[in-house]
Write a structure and sequence with these properties.
Length: about 140
């Protein structure tokens, strides 16, 4: 997508299933093997009542959208703020909604919201990112 085609208020939505193998691979790659993520028995007895995804894995799904779909290849992810409000469970379907909030013409940058919702429509991760679009 070209910078000139992007407008304030523009939205992009995509659904993902948080798969067990994604969580286990993320734990292996990063070394974050917190048992609430990888041990079903431990997680059942936690405050969550089941295995949950790593918050940063969820932001990885956001990154895949930003870099590959909206705005797409050439996008540079400059910063990300996130508030983790609700757990996302392994096997759960989530919806990521990206919305353009600001556009800086002179620097070819945009600010977007990066919110993640569960299947009930409740926000799980509330975020905001700054993107450079100099290369698209």
């Amino acid at each position: 997508m070209k910078f000139d085609e992007i407008y304030i208020g523009q939205k992009f939505e995509k659904k993902f299933i948080v798969k067990s193998d994604h969580v286990l691979n993320f734990a292996e790659i990063t070394g974050d093997k917190n048992p609430v993520h990888i041990d079903e028995e431990y997680a059942k007895n936690s405050i969550f009542g089941g295995r949950i995804a790593h918050g940063i894995l969820l932001l990885g799904y956001v990154s895949s959208i930003l870099g590959m779909e909206f705005p797409g290849p050439g996008t540079i992810y400059m910063s990300q703020n996130a508030n983790f409000l609700r757990p996302v469970y392994v096997g759960e379907e989530i919806k990521i909604v990206i919305e353009v909030l600001e556009k800086q013409m002179e620097k070819k940058r945009i600010t977007v919201s990066t919110n993640i919702y569960n299947k009930e429509g409740k926000i799980c991760v509330e975020g905001r990112a700054l993107l450079s679009l100099k290369f698209i």
